[in-house]
Udp glucuronic acid decarboxylase 1 like
Amino acid sequence: YSIEEFARIIKKLIGGTSEIVSMSNKVEDDHRKKARHKVGQRGYLDWEPKVALLDGLKLTVEYFRQELERDRKGAKLTRA
């Protein structure tokens, strides 16, 4: 995935309306090529994800929604 693809996925998950601004892709392309080469070497990382990417992003978004709600409730209690 590219950074722009991550941004679009997260924007969709949170129901965002902000515009995604694209920066120069040169640096990102260089990093992606290097990462693909290293990851392509079987066993290089000796790691496999336990959660699919999209599922992990959904869990992360839900976690932060709960944290924001908890903070809002705490702020209401301290003002009273």
Summary: The CA atoms of residues 47 and 76 lie 43 Å apart. The chain has one domain: 24-79. The first helix runs from residue 3 to 14. The mean pLDDT is 80.
